[in-house]
């Protein structure tokens, strides 16, 4: 009898490790082996979705690795399954035509699992970015960080923008089909509706921007938002901020101040910007290359309200010409990237710059003679 089970072990740290299809006949297993399915084909045959069955059609399958081991088909997720979260596993019989299963007239076999919950401390909002208390009126997004994985699908029921009169504003945030969580379900990206942020669009013309220069606001997160274990947040969260005029000009790397480290140390390379940048993009869009072109390994710190970037190397700096490789996708907090403002994106038919490079020559300390 064909069945889908959770495989591997479950503990407080790792959770259930994989999904296992058992009960396939030997001919079907041999057929699967000879098909040499691509990742996309595997996801059609045996997709795993986050959430309940009725919600899965709107979501992309969970990323992971498929394999055939002995008499089973195994799906190993790239990220640990979240305690308390529901998952839906589907096995599509139409892709295997040789076996006369009792359920052969059912096109797909689907089953939902809830990963066992674990005891934990109450979940809190740990940080909201941008972290500054003064933000431009054309701000594009917030990043909200939680101490534990959160329940998805209800975010905009619990996130509000309040004006200085204490009124909640309407039609502020972009309602996406699928919420923008990171793989750990602890970081949510929330966009202010770009149709109101960007000038010239119908919603902007009718409603204007949600944030108005000179006014003060408060981002409010409700206490009754539940984490994946079904527990409410420990307390509500508020981020108060005031609004400055819109920032519409794209960033210019020539305006950045770069502080070089000393050779034979692990002091950081630092970049000081003239305004705040998108924190998540800062973590991924700037790389340090060694004199031989290899990637320099180290740790990135973002400080001073996302206006400073620091790279601390794993190994000491050597004499030579290093390079900062900066992706043109790097954006400030209003969505302006290094090639064009958010208000007017570059012509897609025009040749685009992929990366910018800044040279950084590290020289030996001068020898001081007596």
Task: Please explain how this structure is put together.
By secondary structure, the chain is mainly beta. The protein folds into three domains: 3-114, Immunoglobulin-like (Sandwich), CATH 2.60.40; 125-244, Immunoglobulin-like, CATH 2.60.40.1220; 253-362, Immunoglobulin-like (Sandwich), CATH 2.60.40. It is 10% helix and 32% strand. It has helices at residues 26-35, 39-45, 155-158, 194-197, 202-207, 279-284, and strands at residues 3-7, 18-22, 48-50, 64-69, 72-77, 86-92, 108-114, 125-129, 134-136, 141-146, 159-163, 180-181, 187-191, 216-221, 237-244, 257-259, 269-272, 286-289, 298-303, 308-313, 320-327, 355-362. A hairpin with a 4-residue loop joins strand 19 (298-303) and strand 20. It is globular, with a radius of gyration of 25 Å.
């Amino acid at each position: 009898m064909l069945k889908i089970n959770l495989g591997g072990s479950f503990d407080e740290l790792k959770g259930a490790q994989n999904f296992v299809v058992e009960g396939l006949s030997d001919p079907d297993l041999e057929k699967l082996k000879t098909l040499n399915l691509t990742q996309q084909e595997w996801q059609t045959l045996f997709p795993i979705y986050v959430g309940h069955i009725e919600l899965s059609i709107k979501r992309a399958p969970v990323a992971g690795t498929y394999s055939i081991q002995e008499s089973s088909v195994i799906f190993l997720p790239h990220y640990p399954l979240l305690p308390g979260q529901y998952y839906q596993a589907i096995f599509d019989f139409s892709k295997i035509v040789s076996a006369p299963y009792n359920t052969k007239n059912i096109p797909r076999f689907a089953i939902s699992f809830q990963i066992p919950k674990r005891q934990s401390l109450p979940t809190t909002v740990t940080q909201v970015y941008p972290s500054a208390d003064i933000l431009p009126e054309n701000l594009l997004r917030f990043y909200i960080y939680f101490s534990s994985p959160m329940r998805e699908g209800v975010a905009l029921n619990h996130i509000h923008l309040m004006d200085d009169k204490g009124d909640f504003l309407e039609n502020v945030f972009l309602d996406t089909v699928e919420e923008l969580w990171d793989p750990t379900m602890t970081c949510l990206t929330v966009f202010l509706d770009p149709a109101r942020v960007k000038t010239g669009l119908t919603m902007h013309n009718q409603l204007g921007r949600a944030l108005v220069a000179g006014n003060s606001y408060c981002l409010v997160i409700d206490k009754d938002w539940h984490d994946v274990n079904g527990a409410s947040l420990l307390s509500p969260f508020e981020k108060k901020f005031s609004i400055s005029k819109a920032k519409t000009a794209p960033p210019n790397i020539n305006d950045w101040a770069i502080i070089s480290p000393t050779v034979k140390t692990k002091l950081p390379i630092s970049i000081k910007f003239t305004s705040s940048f998108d924190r998540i993009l800062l973590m991924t869009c700037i790389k340090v290359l060694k004199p031989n072109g290899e990637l320099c390994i180290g740790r990135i710190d973002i400080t001073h309200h996302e206006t400073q970037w620091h790279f601390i190397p794993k190994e000491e700096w050597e004499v030579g010409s290093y390079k900062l490789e900066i992706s043109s996708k790097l954006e400030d907090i209003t969505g302006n990237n290094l090639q064009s403002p958010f208000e007017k994106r570059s012509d897609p038919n025009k040749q685009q710059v992929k990366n910018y490079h800044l040279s950084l020559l590290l020289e030996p300390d001068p020898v001081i003679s007596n």
